[in-house]
Design goal:
globular; binds manganese (II) ion; two-stranded antiparallel sheet; Stationary-phase Survival Protein Sure Homolog, Chain: A
Length: 251
């Protein structure tokens, strides 16, 4: 099995190093192609206004001076003349990617880029908060999460979004398959200041983001000490609205 690893925290991120160790136990054909620098919050951004460079650091280890989407797109076009990867894993992200983090997340978007190319894709993120347990939950549970995902086909044009709770391995209660919850970043904190040249600046913060801890959501599962597994689809169509919206335009 050929596995491609990527992330949005950059080629030197500890979460990627851990993912490489986990993947090495699953396959002897593991490739890495990740952004040179941190790209958290880059979403599904494809660089169009400048060229993108590919840097080789090892036989199967590459960095792209670009976004997570650039890294996956370029890897799939340029690195695999003798066969595309069977699986793409993105992460393990430094911090959770829950609820409406989905469309901001470079980690999940990198997996989406692989899914668009028809390759099964898993995004993995480790909630950290201030708990001080680091990547303990991911380290202890990643193999158990990946095994069933690798054993059966993942639906086309979907991504499996996995989040590990901010707990030590032995305190994790188990794995829950749950739907995407709700976050409101429009209400998140905004830091305001003045730069050294006297101009005002604004910095988006992650404090005070509104959560809805509905039953059966990824937010609830991780909050309860479980690993959340959420299937996401790239078709964002709200099917329930198709009929009523069509009626409005029927004149
Ligand atoms: Mn990140």
């Amino acid at each position: 099995m050929r596995i491609l690893l990527t992330n949005d925290d950059g080629i030197h991120a500890p979460g990627l190093e851990l993912l490489e160790a986990i993947a090495a136990r699953l396959s002897d054909d593991v490739w890495v192609c990740a952004p040179s620098l941190e790209n958290s919050g880059a979403g599904h951004s494809l660089t169009l206004n400048m060229p993108v460079r590919l840097h080789r650091f090892g036989e199967k280890r590459f960095a792209v001076a670009g976004t997570p989407t650039d890294a996956v797109n370029l890897a799939l076009r340029k690195l695999f003349a003798d066969g595309k990867p069977d699986l793409v894993i993105s992460g393990i992200n430094h911090g959770e990617n829950l609820a409406d983090d989905v469309t901001y997340s470079g980690t999940i978007s990198a997996a989406m880029e692989a899914a668009l190319a028809g390759i099964p894709a898993v995004a993995m993120s480790q909630a950290l908060r201030d708990a001080g347990h680091g990547f303990s939950a991911a380290e202890g549970w990643a193999a158990q999460v990946l095994a069933p995902l690798m054993a059966t086909p993942i639906a086309r044009r979907t991504v499996i979004n996995v989040n590990f709770p901010a707990l030590p391995t032995e305190a994790v209660k188990g794995i829950r398959v749950v739907r995407q919850g709700f976050h409101d970043y429009a209400r998140g904190s905004l830091v305001e200041g003045v730069d050294p040249r006297g101009r005002p600046y604004y910095w988006f913060g992650l404090e005070d983001v509104e959560h809805t801890l509905d039953h059966g959501t990824d937010l609830e599962a991780v909050g309860d000490g479980y690993i959340s597994v959420t299937p996401l689809q790239l078709d964002l169509t709200h099917h329930a609205s198709l009929g009523t919206l069509a009626e409005r335009f029927a004149g």
